[in-house]
Specification:
single chain, 549 residues, alpha/beta, TIM Barrel, 21 strands, binds 1-O-alpha-D-glucopyranosyl-D-fructose
Length: 549
Amino acid sequence: MDFKKSVVYQIYPKSFCDSNGDGFGDLKGVTGKLDYLKELGVDYIWMTPFFVSPQNDNGYDVEDYYSIDPRYGTMEDFEELSREAKKRGIRLMLDMVFNHTSDRHEWFQKALAGDPKYKNFYIFKKGKANGEPPTNWESKFGGNAWKYVEKFDEYYLHLFDVSQPDLNWDNPEVRQELQKVIRFWMGKGVKGFRFDVVNLISKDKYEDDYEGDGRRFYTDGPRIHEYLQELNAATFGTDAEIITVGEMSSTSMENCYRYASEDGKELSMVFSFHHLKVDFVGNEKWVIVPYDFQKLKHILFDWQTHMTEHHAWNAVFWCNHDQPRVVSRFGDEGRYWKESAKMLGTVIHCLRGTPYIYQGEELGMTNPHFDQISQYKDVESLNHFRILQEKGLPESAVYEILKIHSRDNSRTPMQWDGGKYAGFSDAEPWISVNPNHVRINAESEMQDDDSIFRYYQKLIRLRKDYDVVAYGDLEPLDEKHPSVMAYRRTWKDQELLVISNFYGKEVTWDAGRGLDGYTRLLGNYEDSRLSGTKAELRPYEAVVLYKSL
Ligand code: TEU
């Protein structure tokens, strides 16, 4: 399957569908919803980790890469899911968390028991003479990134939670063990892999960072390309049908040219996150600032044009299980909920790159606005609830920040119907259902021709029907316009214009070219108001125009 013509749907199994009434989503739940995904029209499903795990970070803390966590089901359930998906022309993409394991992983347990072979699977270092940890690096989830182990009088590195020790990729035995994991899942017919924070695996120097939180010493590190090429050659590179995506934390574009080069030596594509920091202050996300629209456009366009020039491929997306809901973030979840959700979908799906849809995005699911700490489950949110108060913020201000930035915003149960638990489960879910499921749910949207769901179907279809959507080059139009994002795509004799109003105010936009010769392929209003070179755009209006040259 050509990944440039494909669309990937991300499933967070814990929150997707619960088949056995324990309040916790599972693999059988996913199998039961394959017809829904087939109807939507997606080609791949990426599932976040369902391997055996203590679930401190919802499965990103893997205890055993070869077994399914009983909470999610059994290997038979996985095989059934894989067979049923295949019947529907849907392929599975698994999530490989290789930067770290759980501290409950057998390797780490042996390391802690003092076995030197396994100690060398992780990164243990002596502290400073003054009793401080080896470096001042910060964990991504808050606090210092080193944990003291008294028995050895040494610290181990954990860039994420203390229960997620980083693996030592400089040890060839570690790399070989991880290759085995990929080969095992390839043997099960898996045709896609997502690699979690994979650009952090090659650590550079272990030094204090006086300019930042330490990331410059391990991001896109010195041996990263070598390690990816080795993994590729030893595993998935032998099967041309397999597609891969690397999650690249704080990466640079120059490195992404190589990670996602079309020569296929490393990965098929990359997730980069710069466009999702436009409502941060620098790298600081625990703040409330309006998002910077100019910056958003600039970053997206920059990646689009430069990755094309360097023959590299993007994954394009707004949402995942770590990000707040996009309609709440860059749209208007109130008055223009439907218009803005469709507009944001249009922008992503008409870009050059493989689009990813995160479960519920196709319904326009919103942030839940939790205002009780008991409603928050994510380790990062719980840590920052404490850290921000220690820094002096009143509790009420901390809630306002969590309502905007918590990763739990995207983790509430999938809204299947208007019933008690949104059709997700018969029992009380592990995390609260968003009360707006009575209005926003799959059942009602599937009965409505004008719904966000029906619109996403059309967006997916566009990529299949028009080569220009999949392969075309991109040229930004009127880049500095204060409220419109517009671009032109061209491929052979096909041309596409994509025009979107990001605000709730009407605006007249001048395309600088006659719009008469174009056919309207799609829009989020019943018609489009075009005359001469001008497009009159209503609140959050998006329109896709096409011309065959
Ligand atoms: O996330 C990597 C990551 O760095 C972030 O997106 C993270 O959520 C953010 O820095 C917090 O502000 C990946 C996974 O997607 C995430 O769910 C895991 O928690 C993390 O790696 C560790 O495995």
